[in-house]
Amino acid sequence: MQQEISCGAVVFTNFGNERRFVIIRGKKGFYGFPKGHMEAGETEKETALREIWEETGLHVQIIDGFRTEDEHPLIREGKPDTMKRIIYFTAVYNDQEPRAQESEISEIRLWTYHEAMEAFQFESSKRILNEAAAFLNETMSPGAIKQLK
What we know:
Blueprint: E1 2-15, E2 18-26, E3 31-32, E4 35-37, H1 44-56, E5 61-74, E6 79-92, E7 105-111, H2 113-119, H3 123-139
Parallel strand pairs: 1-6
Antiparallel strand pairs: 1-2, 1-4, 2-3, 2-7, 5-6
């Protein structure tokens, strides 16, 4: 079986003491996280940073200590013999306005944890957000991101 690799992140910022997550809706109508295909010579984190910039226009900082994966067959894309592996990190940004890459993204939302959980169509997206939110709650207070630049 062939394999494709994509990388991205659960991206967030804070409004006061409330964490907001960057949730994108792709052209197929599904909500998820910014991510994309790894190119030759890139590391996983380089891919994630590039794809986040391309899809959202955001310059983010990856927060060390979190990495999770998802995997699914590309049956809907007409590639039943290919598995897609997606690596996710957590990333933060400050003082920027997201802008959607019109060729791939229908909209970008800044949602709370609960708003995102209600919107996700796939259990894997809920699992990834749960894992990322638990990591962030354990490792950083909402005010801590102001020091990250």
